[in-house]
Target: Adenylate kinase
Amino acid sequence: MRIILLGPPGAGKGTQAKKIINEFNIPHISTGDIFRKNISERTEIGVRAKAFIDNGQLVPDDITIDICLERLTYKDCENGFLLDGFPRTVPQADALQEFLSKRELSLDAAINIVVPEDVLKRRLSGRRVCVHCGASFNIETNPPKLEGKCDFCSSDLIQRSDDSLETVNERLEVYKRQTQPIIDYYSNKGLLKNIDGYQDIAKVFEDICKTLGRDPK
Ligand code: AP5
Ligand code: MG
Model:
């Protein structure tokens, strides 16, 4: 399966990605996670990306396209992949299309997780992420079993630096301006699957599996 996950900040892309990759046994490629890893390792890409991410802006296409397409050449992508947060602009979508066409490959689905904006803001302000494995929790809607600790690896949970109210508002505006056009892009290709993301995490996953023609395990 070659799947892309679309949806605004806080829609639940990362949360659903973890479940989808288990179900379909494919790698999870999140450009946001790749950038955060580079930032924590203080690489050149990390330094360049940080300025954009902290302001709620998209990292420029040339950096993002290179980093994502390079990742897609790894051996673990031979049998498919799940892209989370890429593409986010029309040039990125075009670059992905060109990459796949050259290899005579195609996407199976573009899953668009739809959630009302007020819910997105509440989710992002309550989000806590694991410093070690990146698992995402929410103090209101999806709390960890032990406060401040990851259910999966027991590491500390922190708030993401771009989850401040001001940066969240900017991220949502940037989403509308730059990313929403690719909804039409994939709709025109007949690949778009809209999923109601304002439901229980398990129900959202069930709907995603159904739309991909699979009964969840
Ligand atoms: P990225 O890390 O991709 O952030 P994002 O798209 O803003 O999305 P989020 O990760 O904030 O939300 P999510 O949809 O994954 O939600 P989650 O599952 O965590 O990108 C960060 C930045 O990197 C960008 O702003 C940009 O600067 C840069 N970047 C990345 N990719 C780029 C690209 N292609 N081009 C240019 N720049 C790029 O869930 C959110 C919260 O809600 C959690 O607390 C979770 O527990 C909770 N939750 C999830 N589902 C539910 C549910 N069904 N019910 C209740 N609560 C739920
Ligand atoms: Mg995410």
Summary: The longest strand covers residues 109-114. Residues 2-116+176-211 form a domain with the Rossmann fold fold (CATH 3.40.50.300). The chain has nine helices and eight strands. Residues 13-14, 32 surround magnesium ion (ligand 2) (CB under 6 Å).
